[in-house]
Every structure is written in C-alpha cells, then in structure tokens.
Hints:
22% strand, elongated, disordered C terminus
Amino acid sequence: MLSIGEFSKICQVSAKTLRYYDEIGLLRPEEINPENGYRYYRVEQLERMLFISRLKSYHFSLEEIKRILGSDEAEAEMLCQILSKKKSEMEKQMRQFQNTLDQLGDDIDRLQEGKSIMNYMDEIDVGLADVPLMNLLSMRRLVRDCEFADAYGTYFGRLFRKIADQQLTMTAPPMVLFHSSAFTPEGMDTEFAVPVEECVKGTRDFQPGLCLKTVLHGSYDQLPSVYARQCQWAENHGYEGSDALYEVYVTDPSQVSEESELITEIYFPIRKKRGGSYETRESERTGSDDRK
C-alpha cells in the first residue's frame, strides 16, 4: 500500500488532485483510515493513474475519461477508435493553428510594408454573373452554428441518397442557401440543395438572376471576409440584396488533402436600390472595372 503522498510523488499528481479524483469517482483510494482519514492506494492503481494522465495529455475531459474507464471502451479495439477520433480532431486544430500563424505572418508583413492589416480585403475579387433558372432538390432547416459541421453531412447525405434512389441527374455541384436576415443564436434558416434536371417531389425553381460572384480558393474561414467585401461592393455601386446569399461547393472537402485545394463560389443576388437609376444587365456587364 502507498500513502497518498507516496502515490502523488510517483505519479507526479498533487494530493489535492487525487482527493478531487476520489470525490468525482475517477480514482478512489483502496483504503481510508477511519481514525485519521489518511488515504492509501494499491501499487496496481499506479497504472490506472498513469492511464488517466495519458488521456488528459490528449485533451480528454475528466468526464470523458470517467466514461471511458467505466465502460468496455477501455478495451483495445474501442480505445483505438476513440484515440483515432481524438487524433483527427487534434490534426484539424493543428491545421487551424497553422492557418492562423500564416495569417499572422501576412499581417506582420503588411504592417512592415506600411499597409493596413485589412488591406487583404482589396484583393478579394468581386464580379457580376447572370445566373439562370435552376431546379433544386433541397431540404430547408433551422441550423445552429455549433450544428453546421454535422448538418452538412446529414442533409447532403440524404439528398445524395434520394438522387441515387430516384436516378436523378445532377446539373451542378451542391450548394447551401442562407435565408435568415441575421445571424442568431437560435439558428440560421438554411437550405441544403443540389441542382437536378428532373422535376420531382422535393424540387423547386430558383432563379437568382443578377449576382455578385466571388471564387474562393482555400479555407472556409475566409468566407466572412468575402461576404463583407461583396456587401461593400453592393453598397458602393448602389445595389441591395434581392434573394438568399448562397455558396456552391465546387470541390468536395472530403476529397481534398489540404484546405488550399478547396474551391467555393459565393453568390450574392442583387438588384438596384429603389429610387436609383435603372441600368440594364448588359450595361452592367460592360461598365465596371470590378467585374470578371
């Protein structure tokens, strides 16, 4: 038997932490002296404590560790699955940190060149596109910010299964339309859609018409900057939104190895502000240097 001090010294975990682990049922001492309250641990419990410390180093929460230790998940096969999932999460976080470091470096370079940090906004290309009528197979849901990652897989999965089951013909890459007028904690009114040739139950017409268009190469983290640049362009040229902003996913994120390979088209349907002078779409295509 080891005293709490000896156990603490060997595992390099404070006695206070060991008492807390006892309190939450994560690691209980083998014996507590009823006269003085001293805690004693078996030598065999050292391995359990080291296992807990190992899981903590992988950024598992104490609640997660407790669930793992209290179930069959501690067995090799299940534990391998859990650790593999955690590894993927940490690799994603590392990529995000690297992107942040790269952005930080770019900002430092801009400042050293006497430019504004926000100078990159001027490099976002905004063009005009006249988008024709589309037939969309779609599902519309209220999605909270924390649910978006799973929602893309869930709803596009359902749409693709329906396309396969009914042997429908896709005419363009999948897209998402954002119908909410504002970002709210309750969720965004979001439509997951795939353009198809056939008109069946669950399809609808969508004719965005004149749109601002930007092609984004790289991380989805850059999308807010694109939205802001398009809004600036619309305001400066006397336009306002006419329909839901939407994104077209030219590349499948599950099929690329680097975020730099992602290609996303962002469309902002627009019209001339009321009270402004009317201009035909043909003149719009030929009269601005900002267009592709």
